[in-house]
Amino acid sequence: MASAKRDKKKKKYFKLRKHRIWLPIIMFFVISVMIFFIMLLLMTVFAEASVQSKLTSEYSHIMAVTSVYNTENGQQAALDLMEKENWTYILRDKNGKVLASRGDDTCGEKESLLYMEYNDPDDDEDTVKVVKVPTYTDTERSFLSADSDGDIELEYMKLLRNMAENDELKKALSSDKDNEKSLGQAIETIKIPIWLSVPTDGDSTLIVKVNVMAQMTDIAAMLVAILAMIIVMAIVMIIIFIHAVSNALYQSKVKKLFFNDISTDGRSWMWFLFNAEHILRKRKWAKTRFAVVDLTFINYRSFCLCHSIEEGDRVLTAIHQMIAKSLGRNEICARNSEGTFDLLLIEDSAQQAEQRIKELILQLEHTDEAHRFAFHAGIYMVEPVENTSGLFPRRKNVDIEEYHNNASNARSALDGREDSGVSLFDSKFMEDQRWRDTVQEQQQKALDNEEFVVYYQPKYDPRTEELRGAEALIRWQSPEFGFVTPYRFIPIFEKNGFITEIDHYMISHVARDQKRWLDQGYKCVPVSVNVSRAHFIESDLAEQIRDLVDSEGAPHSCIEIELTESAFFDDKKAMINTIMKLKAYGFSVSMDDFGSGYSSLNSLKDMPLDVLKLDAEFFRGEAADTERGEIVVSEAIRLAKSLNMKTVAEGVEVREQVDFLAQQECDMIQGYYFAKPMPHDEYEQRMKQ
């Protein structure tokens, strides 16, 4: 489904990319040329129609004379008639010999055929006939000419193009003022000679010279009509041209706006999505390794909150400019969202890509002189595809969104870090991702089958070494994966929210064990159960815990609710309200990992806690051997006692630490020195002792 949507978007994009401004311009000129030839054709047709109408009457007259010539003893009568009407004619036999003539013989070679319509006088029905009329040129001035295909070009069409070549006009224009009248007549009417051929019954041919009278008023009317059509078509074409160009420019602006990022004036994610894929698909890059990088300016929102959105955009623009300067040819970058940028780089190896991004981040950290920024980057390498023949074909199955998602997942591994960092999407990351998916698929099934097992880690009095309490810890005994330690699944549950189900599970099982041990006569000590910070957004959390413990029949005093210090940084008012309810129901409440954060003392001031657990880091490494470390621990114990709180030291592993804590009157010790976390059966044996 997602792939189909991507393909649909790609088709729309490439269709938009192919649109160019020159396309409507070319179409405009093509249409203009077509219209020009159409206009020329219309003019020719108009002229031919005009000539045909004028010649038809002349041809009918000649046919009438020819019909007289064809009658018995009518030859002389026909010749006399032509003499009387002052015709210029030539009568030739079939061999071309002149039998009779009158006037100058200017009849040239035959050029073409005209199609004439005339009324046949011999036809009783008086029907109109269409005949082919041989046409001859006039050697003094040609009226008709034909090309090799027989298409006719009319003389007065030439006159329209160059009337100055007309002999009569030349003669009129060369006359003096006394010839103004003849000049006007010449301009008003032009005589154009043409020889028409009509066959007779006696195997002879009568060729008569006729003058076609071309009225200048007709020509002027035709010119005006043509000019009007040209003007109208020109206006229409100009409108079409302006519209086409403006539409193309508008689409270009829309495309630019669509692919531009408003904040940085650079490229947008959509531009990166399609252009990165276009680069990767090119044949010349088939053997090249690429790195898809997801680079994030962490705490961007906090920066905008402290300053302004405009200031944030200014910083993003500066970051984009620095990234753009670092790019080589055929490398691209674009802003994805907020403070995130995506890059496509050409790199020979993942190590080189990682080193290059680290160097880039060092520059970006000093984008603004007044601030030092931090950046997280995830890298996914796009490897060339080698076939069985050792060749590298062009990449076909390119999915930029998947590559970006992999790079983004690699970057997300750095979440929580305040300093800059770079993470590679490699085989280990793939294994971790597959494990996260597997855990999420199996989590509900494991809960329903009670594959999660409660382990107990005892807490001892450092002075008497008596059992004073315990902490409930979870383990996963999976039929498929075996024994799974908490650090492999608890962080996953915390991210996907399933941790609240684990909280309920642990409280119920601890209450059930406590009830069973009490029924067996054991002297039970309080067992602390961790409750995640995500659970404290629920206003009825105290009631949920109460009902779970009551459903198992265990006394509330046997259950201690343990909170992490980080939970106190959320909704303080809701936190205090929940703690007060828990204490009212008879539960004790403890703070875990005291000293791991930076607001511990403020938390102690506001929170009515019963137990304070000192962070294990106080007792690990070199800090445990220093005088400063001992001072901090001793003062923390003294502070807790002043607030009527018990203290528990976590992570105690050596005897010297036990002796020191006993001297400081620490209430309980939890650590490997006394016991590791153990199954409930083994813990039960400890209780017997």
Offer a quick outline of the entry:
It is built from 21 helices and 23 strands. Helix content is 47%, strand content 22%. The radius of gyration is 53 Å and the shape is rod-shaped.
Helicity, as a percent range: 40-55%
| Average of the residue pLDDT scores | 80
Q: How many strands? A: 23
Main beta-sheet strand count, sense and barrel state = 10 strands, mixed
Describe the structure in your own words.
By secondary structure, this protein is α/β, with parallel strands linked by helices. It contains 21 helices and 23 strands. Strands 14, 15, 16, 17, 18, 19, 20, 21, 22 and 23 form a 10-stranded mixed beta sheet that branches. α2 (22-69) crosses α3, α2 (22-69) packs antiparallel against α7 (216-259) and α16 runs parallel beside α17 (572-584). The radius of gyration is 53 Å and the shape is rod-shaped. The relative contact order is 0.05.
Main attributes?
single chain; alpha/beta; 689 residues; 23 strands
Write the layout of secondary structure elements.
Layout lengths: L1 H16 L4 H48 L5 H10 L3 E6 L4 E5 L4 E13 L8 E11 L5 E3 L5 E3 H7 L5 H7 L6 H9 E11 L4 E12 H44 L9 H13 L8 E8 L2 H7 L2 H18 L5 E6 L2 E7 L3 H15 L10 E8 L17 H13 L8 E4 L2 H22 L3 E9 L6 E12 L3 E3 L5 H7 L2 H21 L7 E4 L10 H12 L6 E6 L7 H13 L3 E7 L5 H7 L4 E4 L12 H16 L3 E5 L4 H9 L4 E3 L7 E2 H9 L1
